[in-house]
Q: What sequence folds into this?
DNA sequence: TGATGTGAATTTTTTCACAGCA
DNA sequence: TGCTGTGAAAAAATTCACATCA
């Protein structure tokens, strides 16, 4: 069994979300097969089975998958059965949007601390998370067992914050700042780049069909 | 010359951003070659040349690229030399964050209208964009020549808004709602899924190294 | 029979190697 | 000589075809 490509992981997350909705609608008894799942998600059905096959056997031949069981299995594969502690760096509008998004809580992704350099915000509590000065990242990260950091600060501050996070021992970072961050090999960095997404659309609209 | 893969377009956007910073720092005279560019961006240098080669010849053998010229060319390829009119659907915190992000303006991506069903917001103006009722999408989209729509509404409202946008003739959509939208083939849809990104990190942290 | 799971085939993307030009 | 641009090779991802099993 080969190592799954990273994009398979993203698709597992998609399957998981679908299964949750599906169970809510149809109950946990109904079975679902890869063709139906593929149809709903507009994905090739071979791909779904291939993605799952990297991790084991979850279906029943001639029948399909039991959604509740498959959901649990994917949850486990993705590491969502245990919870993770997150910190949010930068509490502007984007930070507020992330804090407000309840979907994270459901997956046991808890924002437990906020770092912001604005003195007026430090000490306040938003959605159950207290705001600390960026200087205290190392201290707070250790005390609160922070696993994952979200960078939502302006571009000019992003690398400095990243360095602090890495120094504090955080090994997974989601970066929203539009800049290429330098991180060591053992730190996992994912970037969400809103401008790049829009530029893709711009290209689509202007390129000849 | 073959069709470029979609991911090349995303990388062009990255090159563009880097060139802008580079020109600011070094001035438009200094040349840059693919190896340096690759080094800064942590990308293979063959890939950079290959990405560019899909669109033509932009460098000088033995020398490299003139950043100002390359920037203009990429701008043109990506369709950013003409501007685009955007609308924002849903004005919560995420919407506010998008409105506040000045990077879009620099690329001539202008949010010219906002659609929100909250009656208290309708009629108000944020960052130069007026808030309209979702019912008036068709009308406003035509009047303001809207090219691209951003969906930042709750999951439950996303498909309905998408249908309205498509009906209004909009052919490019950036979707932030955590749901798979159904759109016709001729509409370009890109999704930004924050939960999926975090789940990738969760997988990384929990998978054996 | 019907749907999974998977090795093989195909397609796509990345990387390489070098011809070609300043 | 030095670096681009590109066909070819290699690697990776997707799709296919089918053996397998309930």
A:
């Amino acid at each position: 069994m080969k190592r799954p490509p990273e994009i398979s992981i993203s698709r597992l997350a998609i399957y998981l979300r679908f299964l949750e909705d599906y169970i809510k609608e149809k109950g946990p008894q109904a079975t679902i097969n890869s063709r139906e799942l593929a149809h709903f998600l507009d994905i090739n059905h071979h791909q779904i089975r291939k993605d799952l096959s990297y991790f084991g056997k979850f279906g029943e031949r001639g029948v399909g998958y039991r959604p509740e069981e498959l959901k649990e299995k994917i949850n486990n594969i993705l590491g969502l059965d245990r919870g993770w502690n997150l910190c949010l760096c930068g509490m502007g509008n984007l930070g507020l949007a992330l804090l407000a998004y309840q979907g994270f809580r459901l997956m046991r992704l808890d924002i437990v601390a906020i770092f912001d350099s604005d003195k007026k915000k430090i000490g306040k509590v938003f959605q159950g998370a207290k705001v600390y000065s960026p200087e205290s990242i190392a201290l707070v990260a250790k005390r609160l067992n922070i696993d994952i950091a979200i960078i939502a600060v302006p571009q000019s501050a992003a690398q400095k914050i990243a360095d602090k996070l890495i120094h504090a021992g955080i090994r997974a970072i989601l970066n929203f700042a539009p800049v290429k961050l330098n991180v060591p090999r053992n730190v996992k960095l994912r970037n969400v780049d809103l401008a790049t997404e829009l530029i893709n659309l711009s290209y689509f609209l202007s390129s000849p069909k």
